[in-house]
Amino acid sequence: MLQILEAFVRQLAPVALLVVGLARLCAAVDPYLVTWDAPGIGHRDSMPIGNGDLGMNLWTEASGDVVLLIGKTDAWSENGQLLKLGRVRVAFTPSPFRAGASFRQVLRTRDGVIEIHGDGQAVLQAWVDADAPVIHVQLVDARPRAAHVSLESWRTAPRRLVDVTGNAELAQGLRELQGSPAGGPTIDPDTVLAAPDSLIWLHHNARSIYGDLLRNQHLEALQGAFSDPLLHRNVGALARGPGLTVVDDHTLTTATPQAGLRLDITAFANVAERTDVWRAGVQAAADQAAARDAAAARAATQAWWNRFWERSWILVGGEAHAAEVTQGFIMQRWMTACGGRGPAPIKFNGGTFTVGQEPPSGTPYVPEQGRVDPDFRVWGSNVWFQNTRLIYWPMIANGDLDTLAPFYAMYKAALPLATARTRLAWRHDGAIFPETIFFFGLPSNNDFGWGNPGPEMTNPYIGRHFNNAPELMMMLLDTWDLHHDADLATGTLLPLADAFTLWFDQHWPRVAGKLRFEPSEALETRQHAADPLPDIAGLMQVLTRLCALPEALTTPAQRARWHTMLADLPPLPRGLTDAAGKVPVTPDQASPTGTPILWPAASFDAPKNSENPELYAVHPYRLFGVGLPELELARATYEAKRFADSTCWGQQGIQAACLGFAARAQREAVANFTAYDSQRFRWFWKSGDWQPDLDNGGAGQLILQSMLMQARGDRILLFPAWPKAWDVDFRLHAAHDTVVSGTVRGGRVIDVTVIPESRRKDVVQMELQ
User: Fold this and answer.
1) Which of 348, 344, 466 is CA-nearest to residue 411?
2) Segments in the chain below pLDDT 50
3) Closest residue by Cα to residue 86 from 191, 194, 196
């Protein structure tokens, strides 16, 4: 009977399949829910929620207070730091949310809301409007209560960055701003504005580090050619609600106890020299939010989240860790959707959901002594491509192109500056981005080197690390394959591809008719290398795919140049393992009787980091893998790798799946999705690059997707690394507007659905392992 019901339900709608999958896999446990039965203590007890741009960490405290730590994806300071907007505390007298049998806090990810249940019938809902930059907090309660809303600020006075000698974590958090001959810039205070019925505050950038970047990096000629991306940037919020009156610039309260509460916090960002222009903008946005029917806004937000979860899913069962893997996949996708639709990409080291570290309550604020506050994040505020990409790769198969778009848009917007920088620095055409950049495309002066006389950065880990260009092109080409979106091709893919390939073509000399990548790097790990495998493998794959684009999109000159570059690429570096069966530390340590493997470069030095550059030929560049030539060579290379890690920014689980190692990929997926730490919302993951460690969750998602489905041109390999021990219901997106869904139970494939049906002929169903 159940099989008949399932067959009928599959004809109705994709969401019905999701319901069936949940019922079969999760029984009474819904992996889209997180439920806590006691209040928290402080900021490490928060739940994340957002609308793609505006987000918050919400927690309760023993007093019954509800605290909102608010972030926005484009809250850039005068120093290029990604700041929090602020912290808002909501207190009730008496509070219904103290510890007790009635307390329950629930994150409902399918509906986009946090609910807090308290004494009697008291229920508080907190959510972020899917269609507007507004946080809504609403208490439904029959009992009248006094309510107090307070703005808690920590940026209250100018603070100069301190000497971080001996404090490695603090140094990492402020890394972009260290080394200034002037001793480091100040972090400026927020501005709190008086209003008759609201709390209004903002951070106004009256100055900018942009000029210092241009001067130190020999780009003075570009002063005025591009708008300063930081100067006069304003970002802040307005908080108000019916029945709330102003006590002072930091406090709202109810004049008399009232049944229920509605609090709206409207965020707003603009560029204006005068803060009154920003004030008019935030008030207009708040007025618009207040005029909107609250029930309609809530329903629209719930509908947006329902549609989001209908796009795709992976629901794993049948083994002890399967439920954790399923919920980890869901919660990672929740966090990236909550922070992935804004004007700036997701920060790999926490996104908008960092909580920082604060001194114990009552600790006095002492300037110049290294106070760490909610703005803090290890590894700072630059965009690091190698970490950030792991957040975005899974969005392609998930069909989450709206959350993927800001990542591409940042590089496209920064392309003109990068092109101008190339002409000044290297006197040739094209463009390249450093591995770590401010959101507008320039590296920090700390990475470039203060007083550096040359064009190349002095940071040895990223000075000649250029592999972000071919990998970004690879991602764009995979995204193009999904829908053949002409706007994506002509507006983003081809401008970036043209600039990047020009840069590689003109930057490196030709020796005996072949491009010679020297001096170069193989990622961060092999810092003195010639002909690094990641760059060559990336260009081999990307140039081939660019040449295959519809001729209506490209010019004869572009195609001719790409064909010539392909012919001029050096071969992929190959060699032998050392006596221990590993990739040699240096080429001279290869054993004459070693196993043939891929090498990280034609020549290379001892590792300085823990990456396996030689395996980039497997992922992300797919020159080797299941269903491709020389699979055994690639598998031998995997066996010989020097470093084995999948968590944080490690790729070994992804590469295991691409090579068809089901058991290993399964083990690594479990490792990523159970990499918990001490924060109560355990899917912030164990801190590798800070919390939430979003590249860790992204790597886990990509492992799971690659176990289920891999592309080989127009072919779709199903179950290339799926273990019999795991049941699964899944729905994923593939090239040519294809959606593939399927069910595995008890080591057997129950069914596979391919939409459109015409693509079924391209699906290759592989044996479960």
Assistant:
1) 344
2) 1-28, 365-370
3) 191
